[in-house]
Amino acid sequence: MEKLVCSTMRIVQMQMPQAATTGARMLVPGLQNTLQMQQVRHRQTKHWKPEFKRLRRQKFIKIELPNLQQKPQDMSKEEMRSRMKERGVFPPRPWMERPFHISCTGGIFEPYVPPEGDGKKSIITTSGAKQKFEFLEKKSKSMLAVRKIRSYEESFSSDEFGSYAQDIYISAHTHMAAKEKYKIREFVTERCYPEMMHNVKDKTIHWRFLQSLEPPRLVHARCTEVITKENQFAQITVRFHTQQMLAIYDRFGRLMHGSEILTKDVLEYVVFEKHISNEYGQWRLHDKIIPEWLPAKQPAPITYRITDDVVEETPPNQINAGEQAKQLEPGSSQQQKDQVNMATTTVSPTVEQISKPTLAI
Predict the structure, then answer these.
(1) How confident is the model at residue 36 (pLDDT cuts 50, 70, 90)?
(2) Of the segments 79-83, 252-256, 283-287, 328-332, which one has the largest average pLDDT value?
(3) Mean pLDDT over residues 267-281, rounded?
């Protein structure tokens, strides 16, 4: 350290011989403080443990920074190809492809036609026996469809599917009444969702499943392919004969439909669908079959607001007496001319403002 100080003083004397003596005197107190500091054998930039120098050097990777100023138009095809191959980028294709997923069908293929008067006629009667015979005729296609479903789902049973479908039916309607729009999607298809949640806003729905009058049974089954033969969809129609309670209130708390005291016997044909080609597909509620012979339902009463609107009545068109006289023929009678003169002398009525209550939504 002393040699370093002496060398620096000599350099100062060589460069500035006149100020060397004065500078040396000014550096004396500073040099005394530096002499009291602890000496260090190595530089501060080196690591304190040089044992793993090679491993620390391998931690850093030299990368080639891209030239952002270079434009693709200035590069040749070979340079572009080598650059894309180096970066692992595939060349662009001349067409645009957008993947899409078909999770359900758009309707019911070969819908089941419910017999008229079902749920009211006994098997002993003539019409009831006829219904049973028609059901046996359509059973062959349903058996083939069930066999195809079993080829994809080995644990499928047509006898046990009725109770499983009833659980899906109850869960879907319970979530609809609670307006749980995310949980209901696990039990209904994308086609059924907007139909069930339509017009539910600003309404209170009280729905309860009471009991089954008849055990639910499978009445119809069909399978179809979409786009390719490997993409298979299955639809099963289940007959429900149950007792339910339904009451719908509007936003003002007025009863629109149903009752919480009375129970109704409900006969429904509900269609369930599953994407059987999908390994993780599930049976979901797809649609309800409404027969043509079913009478139309009465519309729900709507709440109206009574307002007093001012209705202005325009006065009748007044015809000038001179024009009326011209319109009269020369051979007209004296009585017609007198009527024209009386019309001119009468005073036209003023505009009356009549206020009457009207119905407005």
Answers:
(1) low
(2) 283-287
(3) 91
Strand partners, 246: 207, 259
pLDDT value of position 120: 60
> What pTM did the predictor assign?
0.58
* Of the candidates 231, 257, 260, 293, the residue with the CA atom closest to the CA atom of residue 103: 231
Strand partners, 287: 271
Contact predicate 335/296, CB 8 Å: no
- Tell me the pairing of strands 305-312 and 284-289: unpaired
CB 210 within 8 A of CB 263: yes
Token couple for 183? 């949980």
CA-nearest of 6, 269, 263 to 114 is 269
* C-alpha span between 218 and 271 (Å, rounded): 10
Percent of residues in the chain assigned helix, strand, coil, to nearest 5: 35, 25, 40
What residues are paired with 212 via a beta bridge? 242
pLDDT tens-digit series, residues 289-309: 988 878 888 777 777 777 776
Q: Does an H or E element contain 161, and which?
A: helix 161-178
Q: How many CB atoms lie within 10 A of CB 119?
A: 14
Which 3 state secondary structure label does DSSP give 110?
A: coil
Helices and strands in the chain, H and E counts: 10, 6
**DSSP secondary-structure letter at 59?**
T
Tell me the longest C-alpha to C-alpha distance in the chain: 150
CA dist., res. 255 & res. 141, Å (int) = 45
Q: What is the DSSP letter of 306?
A: E
DSSP state of 352: P
pLDDT score of 149 more than 60: yes
pLDDT digits (tens, 9 = 90+) for 193-252: 999 888 888 899 999 999 999 999 998 999 998 888 889 999 999 999 999 999 999 888
Q: Which residues, 6 or more positions from 130, have their beta carbon under 8 angstroms from its beta carbon?
A: 115
